[in-house]
Design brief:
Blueprint (H helix, E strand, L loop, with lengths): L7 H18 L16 E5 L2 E21 L6 E17 L5 E16 L6 E14 L8 E11 L8 E9 L5 E5 L3 H6 L8 H7 L1
Antiparallel strand pairs: 1-2, 2-3, 3-4, 4-5, 5-6, 6-7, 7-8
């Protein structure tokens, strides 16, 4: 809307009314949030800041996991595809800076696959990921805590990969704490390739 023809006190009055209406109807949006929440979250002001919350169904197209099975001509990269429901809650302080983020995920469909043969291993996953920012608004200072489980189980066979329990990561990615079987950490952090051999065999 252009207001080129409105001048003087009338313009001031109109702008004041618009600003008042905006704050009254959208109190959480009157203040810019850092970093801004995604579009699927709805925000509301609280006594000491702002809370944004929402849920969505997300789908991941087949993507390379970084897991490599075998060696030489028979080697293959493992791909992941999934569909899951995500519930996210963001907490901002009175200055509009993010202090904490909590994400709950429940996977309805998930599978690892061998793109060369089409072989798949389904998995179930339920987890909660929490981020706490040492410096509000600066995600590079966030520590991360993962709690939950991921079970990879071929049809009519025993599980071939298992990740469960709790893991805590420093802002630089260093593992500060771990509890429970953590096959992914053993492979990606410790370089233990033995933990993925049953998975590779199922996908070969």
């Amino acid at each position: 809307m252009k207001l080129f023809r409105i001048t003087g006190s009338l313009l001031v009055l109109l702008l004041s009314l618009v600003a008042f209406a905006f704050v009254a109807v959208h109190p959480a949006r009157a203040q810019e949030l850092n970093p801004p929440p995604p579009s699927f979250e709805t925000c509301k002001t609280v006594g000491n800041g702002t809370i944004c919350q929402g849920n969505r169904i997300a789908t991941n197209a087949p993507s390379d996991t970084g897991i490599v099975c075998g060696s030489g001509p028979s080697a293959f990269d493992v791909f992941d595809s999934s569909t899951f429901k995500q519930v996210a809650i963001r907490y901002y302080d009175q200055d509009g800076n993010l202090t904490r983020l909590v994400i709950h995920e429940n996977y309805t469909v998930g599978q690892f696959s061998n793109p060369l043969t089409g072989a798949v291993v389904p998995y179930t996953q339920h987890d909660t990921i929490s981020y706490v920012l040492a410096v509000p608004g600066d995600f590079s200072t966030a520590s991360e805590t993962n709690v939950g489980e991921v079970i990879f189980k071929p049809a009519h066979a025993a599980p071939v990969l298992f990740n469960a329990g709790r893991a805590v990561f420093a802002p630089d990615g260093t593992v500060e704490f771990r509890a429970g079987p953590q096959d992914f950490l053993d492979y990606f952090v410790n370089g233990d390739t033995s933990v993925i051999q049953p998975l590779c065999a199922a996908l070969a």
